[in-house]
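Q: Given only this backbone (160 positions), what sequence would you predict?
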């Protein structure tokens, strides 16, 4: 059993080719993570590894439910990597407060919450109870880079 949040993150990220210490590619002119006091805001993350978006197209059409769930996990891993890089360690994270999951959805696809469940489960796997957050999952017509999933989150760091 991996006994630290950072170790659990590394163990989940490495097989996908995500290096928790390397800068992540972002898609524009913005802050990937912004800290204001104890509050942390992670900008929208798509399922990108290196320069390649791993899962594209609409869930329920070009992407299966399992594909979309994998995309949500990659997005959540990216968000955790950014938080770790900002704070130095995930042990400095007190709580994920809010998770927003956007799913590019084919007409009739209504399993956005099942897609978001994959991200929520990954956050809980890495952070324990601190990964349980309020959540919104929404179906959308398009996402940047034709990504199947994009997520953002708000979190709080530990005081002092």
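A: Predicted residues:
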């Amino acid at each position: 059993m991996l006994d630290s949040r950072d170790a659990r993150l590394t163990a989940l990220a490495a097989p996908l080719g995500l290096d928790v210490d390397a800068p992540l590619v972002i898609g524009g002119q913005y802050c990937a993570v912004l800290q204001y006091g104890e509050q942390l805001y992670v900008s929208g993350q798509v399922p990108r590894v290196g320069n390649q978006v791993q899962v594209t197209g609409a869930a329920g059409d070009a992407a299966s439910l399992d594909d979309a769930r994998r995309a949500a996990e990659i997005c959540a891993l990216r968000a955790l990597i950014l938080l770790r890089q900002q704070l130095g360690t995930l042990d400095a994270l007190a709580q994920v407060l809010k998770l927003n999951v956007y799913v590019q959805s084919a007409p009739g696809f209504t399993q956005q919450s099942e897609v978001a469940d994959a991200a929520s489960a990954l956050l809980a796997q890495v952070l324990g109870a601190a990964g349980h957050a309020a959540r919104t999952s929404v179906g959308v017509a398009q996402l940047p880079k034709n990504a199947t999933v994009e997520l953002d989150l708000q979190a709080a760091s530990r005081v002092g």
